[in-house]
Specification:
eight-stranded mixed β-sheet
């Protein structure tokens, strides 16, 4: 096979040498526009896992790389005078120039032809260079790939240029750990990522948000001025060592990260050789998790292996794309989480140092709570002691996992941070909860959840979503609900919250299992909303609400809140999410009014706030009120994350105690991006920007995830729905699995507790590990 590799970075060089190693008969040429020793950047970071892949692919190359490594296990986080150290991370650094030299030397040994000083902007020029008849063109020409640009119509690249500027500097100051430094001054917040990559040098990456950058005047500084300003800013940690820039040809060393992805990774049209993308031409991952070079070299490993195994080139390229796309997307998602954390350090800077450092370490979601325990048991135990002392006011000898710490809302004390998520059961008759609801909620109370939330309970017959929805508008509802609350309070420590709402334009539909959001075939009632816009093409056109309609809805919510108090509920939540009545006022998708209740966000919030304030006025002062919102509509013209923060601030000013942060379900056009804990970032942002406690919800399934969310300050409570449907005693089982024996069990179940704990202990002994 004749292969032309355009780009002599790690991806291109490593692919070239692996191809020659697999079959010396291959003719492989690397074309690099720069000189052999001309490269941008200082150090490259590899994890221990990546080193294992390199050893398997080509042991001589891996050995030479490891001979040059600077290795560390610790991460140091410097924040507001404190230094938080976490160990067991297992990373190594190497100079980028050294890495390229090793790859160049190994490629040359194996017979790869290396041509430097060739700026290949078009693969059509290959015949002019004596490379006509190439079987494959490999575009390894980086973030700004000219080859990708030529075939952009086919590759369909997505280039997201981020807003946070950074500059990649170096220093002779040797850092013993991967070090994160945070500076707060009159201009804003600045951070440095520093790590040693050789016996004489460390990389020193300075990053900040756009506002801080401009406030400090960096946008007007040249290279030398920038370096001098950074030296002054980080002088306490440099110990007199200078900072250096290795990009003297640039007017300014500041750059912005570009997140690259492509719909297609290979292309062939019959007139030219097939083209395939690898490395940064195919995808990028933010430097804060040190994954760009990892991705590039793992691309090379996979492509070389598949090309060697398959004789059919089109099938091989398709197999390469299918194999690498998943791994790349997974790492890109983790890198995006990490990138967004550093882009928004202002959001977290006021966290106490232990929580700030924990938030940083778990930012990408690749490092979990229990993973930190495996890496550094002493560090995580310290975090848990600190968190428990803050939650309870005393520092226990054996701290509970974060999810088993108490939490207070006004006069209400929750025993733990686990919430039964509100889930419509569609099982009542005329709005009256029955034995099903008693067993459903009662079993979860016996199962140990700190807070139980009812399904959306409707404030009038016309407020129901379906004929099976529960209500709180008639005396018999109060009696039936009191039966549930009495059981919950008599047989455990759980508290119970009534979620109140009005279906609005999503009303008069069938039961979920008969057709989600499908209108009733008969017996439908008139629905209303802020504007005469149906939820979907098959749904009713709602009547545009008048002032009289609004006054009636307010009275209905007030009456329902008073009934909730009589029924013994500990808390009430107002449903302003998922496209129901109050949600449909907030989102511009369904609110097109031209009066004082439409238009600006302030106007769209006016009616929901009126409802909330009226409920607050009649709800007991020492009892909490919650509001559930959709923090995004998952469509471009809908609610933005910035607006979601303002929504939370508005309810906070009106006296809300906690915001239940959900997303979507406001339009059938929504295109949500699902994944683990996919809604938690919205909770994180609202909690740490609006300063309002939050409940996180959305594909939270494991105790490890709950502990991580709570400890990092991404939410104060975690709501789980489907896990509780599968296991009513999810909380009790989580406690046993984590080794937390202090979680109360019903007296009637104590023998089961003992058996479960013994069984788990035996399993752990067989595995040779501890439970915590």
């Amino acid at each position: 096979m004749k292969v032309a590799v355009i780009g002599g970075g790690p991806a291109g060089l490593y692919l070239a040498l692996l191809m020659k190693k697999a079959d010396p008969a291959h003719q492989v040429v690397v074309l690099e526009r720069n000189a052999a020793d001309d490269t941008f950047g200082w150090g490259v970071v590899f994890s221990d896992q990546t080193l294992g892949y390199l050893r398997e692919a080509d042991a001589p190359t891996a050995a030479r790389i490891e001979d040059e490594f600077a290795h560390w296990d610790d991460i140091d986080v410097h924040h507001r005078g404190a230094v938080i150290t976490s160990g067991g991370h297992g990373f190594s650094g190497i100079a980028r120039k050294t890495l390229l030299r090793i790859l160049q030397d190994r490629a040359a040994e194996l017979g790869v032809e290396l041509r430097f000083g060739w700026n290949m902007v078009d693969d059509a020029r290959l015949p002019d260079l004596g490379l006509g008849g190439a079987d494959l063109v490999v575009a390894a020409d980086g973030v700004n790939s000219r080859i990708r640009g030529k075939y952009a119509e086919h590759f369909k690249p997505d280039l997201d240029v981020r807003h946070a500027p950074f500059c990649w500097l170096g220093t002779t100051k040797l850092f013993d750990a991967f070090t994160f430094l945070f500076v707060e001054n009159e201009h804003g917040v600045f951070q440095a990522h520093a790590y040693r990559y050789s016996a004489a040098h460390s990389a020193f990456i300075v990053e900040c948000d756009e506002r801080s950058w401009k406030n400090a005047g960096f946008d007007a500084m040249n290279e030398s001025e920038t370096v001098a300003a950074c030296e002054r800013m980080f002088a306490p940690w440099l110990d007199g060592h200078p900072l250096e820039s290795n990009a003297p040809h640039l007017r300014s060393p500041w750059i912005r990260f570009t997140r690259v992805s492509n719909e297609q990774w290979h292309h062939a049209d019959g007139d030219v050789a097939p083209v395939v993308l690898i490395g940064d031409a195919a995808h990028t991952a933010h430097f804060s998790i040190g994954s760009g070079t990892k991705l590039a070299m793992e691309d090379a490993i996979a492509l070389a292996r598949i090309l060697h195994q398959q004789n059919d080139l089109p099938s091989a390229l398709k197999a390469y794309q299918e194999e690498r796309r998943t791994d790349a997307l997974r790492l890109q998602n983790a890198a995006r989480n990490s990138m967004e954390w550093f882009e928004n350090v202002r959001r977290y800077i006021n966290l106490d140092p232990p929580q700030f450092a924990y938030s940083l370490l778990t930012r990408s979601q690749r490092v979990s709570h229990e993973n930190l325990r495996l890496r550094d048991h002493a560090y995580l135990s310290g975090v848990e002691r600190w968190f428990a002392s803050r939650a309870s006011g005393q520092e226990p000898e054996a701290p509970p996992p974060p999810m088993f710490t108490p939490f207070r809302l006004r006069g209400l004390r929750l025993e733990n941070r686990v919430v039964l998520s509100p889930m419509d059961m569609y099982s009542s008759v005329d709005g009256v909860p029955n034995d099903f609801h008693l067993v459903h909620l009662g079993s979860r109370a016996l199962g140990g959840a700190g807070l139980l939330m009812t399904e959306m309970t409707c404030v009038s017959p016309e407020a129901r979503i379906t004929l099976g929805c529960t209500g709180m508008y008639a005396p018999e509802h109060v009696d039936a609900w009191r039966r549930v609350t009495d059981f919950v309070h008599a047989h455990g420590r759980s508290k119970i919250c009534l979620q109140l709402g009005h279906s609005g334009r999503k009303g008069a539909t069938r039961l979920m299992w008969e057709g989600m959001d499908e209108p009733l075939e008969e017996g439908a009632w008139e629905v209303m909303g802020p504007s005469p816009i149906p939820f979907g093409p098959r749904n009713q056109v709602p009547r545009e609400m008048t002032r009289a309609d609004m006054d009636l809805v307010i009275r209905q919510h007030v009456q329902a809140a008073e009934m909730a108090c009589d029924a013994g509920f500990d808390m009430v939540e107002l449903h302003c999410a998922h496209g129901y009545l109050l949600s449909s006022f907030i989102t511009p998708i369904s609110n097109r009014r031209t009066d004082e209740y439409g238009g600006s966000l302030e106007n769209r919030l006016r009616f929901p706030l009126e409802v909330f304030r009226a409920m607050r006025n009649v709800w007991p002062e020492d009892c909490p009120l919650s509001v559930r919102i959709s923090a995004t509509d998952w469509v471009e013209e809908g609610i933005s994350p910035d607006e979601a923060v303002e929504v939370a601030r508005a309810f906070g000013a009106a006296g809300v105690d906690i915001i239940h942060v959900s997303t979507g379900q406001t339009t059938p056009d929504a295109r949500p991006v699902y994944g683990r804990m996919f809604q938690t970032p919205y909770s994180d942002r609202i909690r740490n920007e609006a300063g309002v406690p939050t409940i996180a919800v959305g594909n939270i399934t494991e105790a490890d995830q709950v502990n991580g969310i709570i400890a990092a300050g991404r939410a104060d409570l975690c709501a789980l729905g489907r896990p509780h449907l599968a296991d009513p005693h999810w909380t009790l089982h989580a406690a046993a699995q984590l080794g937390w024996t202090e979680q109360p069990w019903p007296n009637q179940y104590l023998s089961g507790k003992s058996q479960l704990e013994r069984s788990l202990k035996r399993q752990q002994e067989m595995l040779g590990t501890s439970t915590i």
